[in-house]
Amino acid sequence: MRIIMLRAVILGLALPTIGHAQSAQGDLSVTIYNNDLALIQDKRSLTLAVGRSRQEFPDVSAQIRPETVTLSASGTGIVEQNFDYDLLSPDKLMDKAVGQTVTLVRVNPATGAETRETAQVLANNGGTIVRIGERIEVLGNYGARVVFSSLPPNLRASPTLSVTLNTTTAGARPVTLSYLSRGFGWKADYVALFDEQAGKIDVQGWITLTNNSGTTFKDARTLLVAGAVGQASGQNYGSSRGSPRGPSGNRPGTESADRERLGDFYVYPIAGRPTIANAQQKQVSFLDVAGAPATKGYFFRNDWLGRQDNPVSCDTVLRFSSSREGGLGDALPAGIVRVYMRDGRGQPQFIGENSIDHTPMGSTLAVKTGEAFDVKVQPTMEKRERIQSDEWERSARYRITEAGKTTEFTVDRTITYWRSSMSYKITNARPQPVTVEVVQSGLDNWWHDTRVPSESIKGSQRSRDERVWMVNVPANGETVLTAQFDTRY
User: Fold this and answer.
1) What is the DSSP letter of 183?
2) How far is 315 from 262, CA to CA, in rounded Å?
3) How far apart are CA 238 and CA 260, in angstroms?
4) In terms of C-beta density within 10 A (0-12 exposed, 13-18 middle, 19 or more buried), how is residue 120 classed?
5) Are 278 and 216 in contact (CB under 8 A)?
6) pTM, whole model, 2 decimals?
7) Which residues contact 476 (CB under 8 A, 6 or more apart)?
8) Structural domains of the chain in order of their starting residue, each with its CATH number
9) pLDDT grade, residue 30 (50/70/90)?
């Protein structure tokens, strides 16, 4: 240090004075988002002198985004900041000692006597190579106790942010350090106990926090934000875009939940001030509802011209609501719903799980829990044939989709029309009757004109691409649904 100071005087450099935060962490607030992101606000007390001084803030997140750091303090501004994340460890200490002199302490296992030798560290690559006098030794896993005279200046016991401040008024003051960090996340998990006979469901909602930032945050005021905030990297976790291949019946609600909002997101505060330990998962409850109405149903979606050589199981679907009246009464963060039912002995047994997206209050949900053992469907392509133009015109009154604009044009070829005849055989081995929702998709494969000239059960058009039938199947029986589709291709 004396040499460094002497050089500074010779070169005419004004080195800043060095101070330290009076506590490693201060009054903490942590806001955690769904997409690997958190906002840390750390309020500490510092005593500052007039002019430039370097302040060290240990115990910041090891995954801090230094470019997002802001510091709020009266009469003080940031001149420069450095993030030191080279953490102290035996390997790092030995790496920094290459070219330096250390002391090796060996113990005679027979006598217990210690001997000390001075050694120069030549390399530390999968083993440590040292020069002792005129000989070279490989220490392996050090092979001796290594004593260092001092610590390298840029190795830290914990992640440390060094900030050079310029202060206009001396004295003690609160300083708030704010920054964004990776390594944080949270998710929602739901445990649902379904009573099929009563048509009721009990739901317990759990929030799971994860901290892989490399730092523990003690007694932190913690807020969770449900939603995906935009980031320049283009990553977008926790998106509310659902898969079109899931069961039908998911409808967004229009009720406002009694929760704090942050812009277009909901905020879920954690009661108390929990400690968010590094490399830890923490679970807290946020929802506890008993006796909400729920029903079970069956669902099958068939692709365009899809057929099966053997019957396949229908999806088992649990339907319930998040509305204030007759539902769970809350906005639901995206997560996994795990469903249980009581067996004949009254013990809850797991029957399936699936994910839900961020769900407004007042929504209806349809969650696939598994595939039915006793309820099967077999779609069959009975016939696919060409039809004449007069038959095409006859079925015009059955048109379910068509282009929005009529344009006259001339073609030099004969238009070919097709009629596809489908059957769907649904069997039920349960001792109770069931209703199966059968969906035929692919009706709008870019041709924009599909017609249904006949169907054995009246269906409804859910969209230009899907037609739906609610098929009642008797106990220990079967029902066959038939339908014809006329298309241009």
Assistant:
1) S
2) 37
3) 19
4) middle
5) yes
6) 0.71
7) 428, 429, 430, 431
8) 15-26+41-84+159-177 (no CATH), 90-147 (no CATH), 184-371 (no CATH), 375-487 (2.60.40)
9) very high
